[in-house]
Predict the structure.
Amino acid sequence: MRKIIKLAILINSILVCAFCQTVLAGSVDGIRFWQDPEKTRLVFDTSSEVDYKLFSLSNPERLVIDIKSAKLTVDTAKVPLPPSLVNRIRSSQQDDKIRIVIDLKHAVDTKHFKLKPFQNFNHRLVVDIRDKSSAKTATKIIKKDADSNNRDIIIAIDAGHGGEDPGASGPTKTREKNITLAVAKKLAEKINAEKGMKAVLTRTADYYVDHRKRTDIARENQADLFISLHADAFTDRRVRGAGVYIISTEGASSEMGRWLAESENQSDLAGGVEISNKEPMLAQVILDLSTHYSVGASINAANSVYKELKNTVPKMHGKSVQRAGFLVLKMPDIPGMLVEMAFISNPTEEKRLKSSKEQTKIANAVFKGVKSYFLNHPPDNSYYASLAKSRSYKVKKGDTLSDIASTYGVSVKQLKTHNNLKSNGLRIGQTLIIPKA
Ligand SMILES: [Zn+2]
């Protein structure tokens, strides 16, 4: 009898132990691909920190990711694939291990890292995949002709957030990242249609670009101005209004500024940046701003945009341009501003931000502010500098008074009074005196 009991206990413990081995510590609950101009990012959402192995195989090219002690709760057949890189994604459960195989179109280089839980995200495993044959950097540099007296003014437009980092969310789940991109594209279009100006976007689709890269793009393109677009959220849904910010070297000028800067600066944690590569802490960043060259220019440009926005949107948040320690504005060499277009957390403002017509209004206001700033502060060798020098204009075929007025940033009325014009009619070869903008 005793023996039987002992045997029963033994069998029981064997069973328990066998069960132990098959208990899976975690699960893979999401798989996403994000494609940007330089790489494809593959993200796994996992219920806990995973133990994994990644290797590539050739003929045909494929990437194998083994995730230990986990089960797969996603249907890999339903994962949208980046068509230029991946043929297929397959998975198999081998005892307590998931094997994910990515069938590739060509050989790749990879970089991978894990991210700890942040906001709505659980643990993540991130694999950045780069085409082996592609050039190291896809960022195009616009060569400025230093000898030219007519070079374009370059304006870097930064659509906040993107990809893994949705930014703030509205009451009906409008994502900040989509609004910022829509307005950025409208603003770029407006700028590119203007003689003497050219826009560079820090991102052109739905993917994440980290803070460092955003400023690098501005610098590589020798931008004269950097404008970061955002729409933030606050715990109190009644809070509304647009705001214009510049970098602060001495701390935030308001509680709200500090709060916004802190939330914007966490973007890299959501967007997915390897922790070791992360920017140093904010205090250090602010100390790094040894040059104050760009601060004065930033204030003037931001004031100009603030003025135009104030005439456009129903409410401004803050009586003037405010200062706060936004990481993305950390550029001692390039003047910059961050525009919070509205509070997406406010139901009325969320609705406004979603409207294409309202997005155009905001883009136009920012554009007007930027243009008026450059008319009054033209960079050396720029087309605007040449405009400022020659304050007279010889009428060419097809010119209209309103075209000329718009080029110089003055009103038709000003042009007419200055030149004693009774009507809007112009003569080819007629010289007009251009009043100060
Ligand atoms: Zn934002």
Observations:
- Residues 113 and 240 are 38 Å apart (CA to CA).
- The first helix runs from residue 2 to 22.
- The chain has three domains: 26-131, 153-376, 390-433.
- The chain has a mean pLDDT of 85.
